[in-house]
Amino acid sequence: MPDQTAPHAFVGRHIGPTASDQDAMVRRVGYESLDALMQAAVPSSIRSTSPLNLPAARTETEALATLRALADRNNPGVAMIGLGYHPTVTPAVIRRNVLEDPSWYTAYTPYQPEISQGRLEALINFQTLISDLTGLPTANSSLLDEGTAVAEAMTLIRRATKGKDALPIVIDAGLLPQTLAVTHTRAEALGIELLEVDLAGGVPDVEAAGIIVAYPRADGGIVDPRPAIEAAHAAGGLAVVVADPLALVLLESPGSLGADVVVGSSQRFGVPMFYGGPHAGFMAVRAGLERHLPGRLVGVSVDSAGRPAYRLALQTREQHIRREKATSNICTAQVLLAVAASMYAVYHGPAGLRGIAGDVHRKAVALAGGLRGAGIELVSDSFFDTLVAVVPGRAVDIVSKAREIGIHLRLVDADHVGVSTNEATTAEHVEAVLGAFDAADPDWTADDTSLPADLLRSGEILTHPVFHEHRSETQMLRYLKKLSDRDYALDRGMIPLGSCTMKLNATAEMEPISWPGFADLHPFVPADDAAGMIELVETLEGWLAEVTGYAGVSIQPNAGSQGEFAGLLAIRGYHRSRGDEHRTVCLIPSSAHGTNAASAVMAGMRVVIVTSTDQGEVDLDDLRAQCEAHADDLAAIMVTYPSTHGVYEHGITELCDIVHAHGGQVYVDGANLNALLGHAQPGVFGGDVSHLNLHKTFCIPHGGGGPGVGPVAVAEHLVPFLPTHPLHPVESKREGVGAISAAPYGSAGILPIPYAYVAMMGAEGLTDATSVAVLSANYIAKRLESAFPVLYSGEGELVAHECILDLRPLTKAAGLSIDDVAKRLIDYGFHAPTMSFPVPGTLMVEPTESEDLAELDRFCDAMLAIRSEIDQVVAGEWPDGDNPLVHAPHTMRTLLDWQHAYDIGTGAFPAGTTDDKYWPPVGRIDQAYGDRNLSCSCPPIEAFAE
């Protein structure tokens, strides 16, 4: 164990229980030492025999100095490359009070809406923003990026156009190259035929299920999308428009032009480029398509007092309900970035956005005038912010000349150069670019527009008061504070969610992401100008390969769901390379995460379920039977380890041997790596591929539901099948399996976080963190076992890093639901554990290593007090319909008119609460009402009146 008391040692800051606390906890669990506990818990067949080969742990100061040196090796310059990524000006009040504020970035996905009202309001602002700009009534609360958003729109076409499964989908060659690459990867896996056509030249006369059209195009041109939309509708298909939201401030909304679906990225609404991500993609749909939306959708309902309240609507976590029939494998979103983008619109308002968009366009017009004045032809006469100049044989020299003066342009090919203006473009930048072309100065007196007259926006945007009330920084600051105060995040207390690993996101880890060397870097600058970032990525990939025992890692997948998809594509690519195209069956245990089944279907595989034993382990007898039955077509098994039930299964190596013997590959889902790190390596004990959740084990914050990173790690024989990207800075990684995410390194901007975490923890620290996580889970299980039975355990009655508490007998006897217990925990000052997953009627608790003993005991005390309350209900001391559980959570407003069979102190100030207790802003939310009365944009201010 590393010395936690050494001056400036980070491990002692990350791990909550002190050495003496750990000793007391170990004794309570029944062991003499932490090492003895781990020897008993982790099966000997998988236990590592040697320590991890990682650099010695660094102090915070040392780690930050290393990261600073890496950032300084990057050359962001003046990025005018475009291609969907643009420099922005993030208002400092948003940067400091959202992106850098733990009350926003340490929150969890708002499955408990009563304690997520601030985040949900910010997201419904985002949905309203997107709905207004796109001209469509319903927008979701973000997707992962533009490329995957277009891919999701493609699958939406397939789902929503019944009877047209065999028909192709027409996709515009004018889309961004990375968007085309991601969509082709997804289409090929699903067996969807894409017809890539340059729609600027007209709509092909083919029968298609739908059309996806660019507005504007990658070359900057603005082509009227109405002919494509009308052609799609005439064929009975759907029309998808891929749009730039800043351009839509000036251009007519696609919805008003007839589009059924609009997708894109909100990056340029105040979010840094981050070398490609994280950024909030979006999707908006016409009426009738709401239930086909992937991802998250925030709606308006009412609480127990009949007041408006926000909650997640419709298809929330549909992967766990529909599994292999799910319409998408997306389990998260980009909430933190969507919040930032929404607040950018709140900060500027419609007039400010029009001013920014107009200024961006004016500079593009001035640039175009200067180029034309020098006799340089442009590819398109109509544009918003992007020009492609025709310069036969001169392109390389022009781009090189611009780079020498600190400006990055786009080298299209030997004869064409692309230039994009943006919010940060100055008059001096325009003049310098013209100088690189040997062109004259721009004519700033011109008052022309290059937007098509018949496509200019005519209606108002952002009419809701929220986009008009916060002009001063004082009001903006107070609005952000008001919203964050309505939420519960790790800055308030423990979030003991099983399967989700809500642990410390240290400030030292978070600090570097805002540094210009990382934040302002365009993903398509030359490799030499991203040398520090590329070294960071390659170093981190090497560390992740070491800790998992695999041969290679790709950091490209920007969510766990995308990592699953990438891993399965690697398996499929391997089988195909051996002539085994027929190997398409994916075995999935009945207890698995729902995204596993959805990902398998997306990768073109057929799901076959393997049963679980009464102890929650994979039934090896059924596994053998399934492997025998599918010996000729078995592709893989997806298994979570430790199991989804929170147990170290002793049969995992045998499971791997069985599958390998029948020609299959073993996919070890890395969701629970927090129970293995430093003690066992999936790539050593039998896994062929794993995805990792960096927003879990490696401290990237959940951000209220995103960002995440889901790198894929593979054995040597699968390395050739890792994701590729047509614009990858490393030339050898441009051709192959295909792109999974829009940027070559996915959400690269947040990779300094896990880099800092691994650097500051070192091998011993990471190993110790796992040990304490397992200790904390077993400590909670031991303290609560007499009140709430632990549903599953391994040898020695031990659990892994989480435990499932079985409340079903108790709640049934008392006439209560699991919701009643979860909401009552809010009154005690806690976010509820994971509810009813993987077993209905249970709570799955994961304390992590970051919570100290006092907080663990506070949680246990609260759970024991709730058990006493349940007993009182069973004994008839409180009426079935009037007790502290069924009316939880209690708001401050309920104190004004108290009419319950129990006293105020019991209801609103239960045992252990203090004057600093958290007050939920709303009462119990009526979920069914919200689905019956679907409303997913900002409600009128009158709705909140008394």
From TrEMBL:
Signal sequence range: none
GO molecular function terms listed in the Swiss-Prot or TrEMBL record: glycine binding; glycine dehydrogenase (decarboxylating) activity; pyridoxal phosphate binding
Top-level taxon in the UniProt lineage: Bacteria
Known cofactor(s): pyridoxal 5'-phosphate
Keyword tags: Oxidoreductase, Pyridoxal phosphate
Residues recorded with modification N6-(pyridoxal phosphate)lysine: K696
Pfam families, per database record: GcvP2_C, GDC-P
Coiled-coil parts of chain: none
Gene3D superfamilies (alphabetical): Aspartate Aminotransferase, domain 1 (3.90.1150.10), Type I PLP-dependent aspartate aminotransferase-like (Major domain) (3.40.640.10)
Glycine dehydrogenase C-terminal domain sequence ranges: 769-890
InterPro entries named in the record: GcvP, GDC-P_C, GDC-P_N, GDC_P, PyrdxlP-dep_Trfase, PyrdxlP-dep_Trfase_major, PyrdxlP-dep_Trfase_small
Key word Oxidoreductase present: yes
Catalytic activity: N(6)-[(R)-lipoyl]-L-lysyl-[glycine-cleavage complex H protein] + glycine + H(+) = N(6)-[(R)-S(8)-aminomethyldihydrolipoyl]-L-lysyl-[glycine-cleavage complex H protein] + CO2
Glycine cleavage system P-protein N-terminal domain residues: 13-436, 469-723
Biological process, per Gene Ontology: glycine decarboxylation via glycine cleavage system
UniProt xrefs under SUPFAM superfamilies: PLP-dependent transferases (SSF53383)
GO CC aspect terms: cytosol; glycine cleavage complex
EC number annotated for this UniProt entry: 1.4.4.2
Function: The glycine cleavage system catalyzes the degradation of glycine. The P protein binds the alpha-amino group of glycine through its pyridoxal phosphate cofactor; CO(2) is released and the remaining methylamine moiety is then transferred to the lipoamide cofactor of the H protein.
PANTHER family: GLYCINE DEHYDROGENASE (DECARBOXYLATING), MITOCHONDRIAL, GLYCINE DEHYDROGENASE, DECARBOXYLATING
Subunit annotation: The glycine cleavage system is composed of four proteins: P, T, L and H.
Family, as annotated: Belongs to the GcvP family.
Protein name: Glycine dehydrogenase (decarboxylating)
Organism from which the protein derives: Aeromicrobium fastidiosum
Taxonomy of the source species: Bacteria, Bacillati, Actinomycetota, Actinomycetes, Propionibacteriales
Gene label: gcvP
